[in-house]
Amino acid sequence: MTAPIAIKKHEAVPGTGSYEVRFADGRPSVYFYWDDLPGRRLQPELLTCRESRDQGQRAGPHRARQARRRQRMKLAETRPFADPQVAARKLLELAADVEPINGRIHIEKINAPFLSKNGCQATGAEFGAGLKFAIERGWLELHESGTFVRLIKAEAQ
Predict the structure, then answer these.
(1) How does pLDDT run across 67-117, given as a tens digit for each residue?
(2) 99: Cβ–Cβ under 8 A, 6 or more apart, which residues?
(3) Does residue 104 fall inside a structural domain?
(4) Residue 157 falls within a domain, yes or no?
(5) Per DSSP, which regions of the chain are E strands?
């Protein structure tokens, strides 16, 4: 007989999230990640909401071990630009190296090296968070078209 389980749905962003399977016998929780938007479902192991819930309901000791092993493998690498402040400072560094045209820097001049495999290898989300942080701090100014930035302070404090 298997131990009773409790399934809790986590959905911070609409259409994507995870199900947490909590075991009554004290074993660590197991997570099943899902995404219902096919355009964002780039990883073949990512499930739909229904598939994830079904797997959570069938979770046994063997399946729990597999899920924990998969989860550990996903978290093996830390992202250096996951902190928006670090990403913003790197964007400032990249922007300072670009020669402005009429006081403006084309966004792709800092976007490309930040995202490229030969550059910083950051993600689009990290770029967006870093850009937002730099704008909020008054270090960069984004043109209303979104195609240019202007360096306001040459050095982040």
Answers:
(1) 555 555 444 457 788 888 999 999 999 999 999 998 899 999 998 888 887
(2) none
(3) yes
(4) no
(5) 5-13, 16-23, 30-35, 105-106, 140-142, 148-151
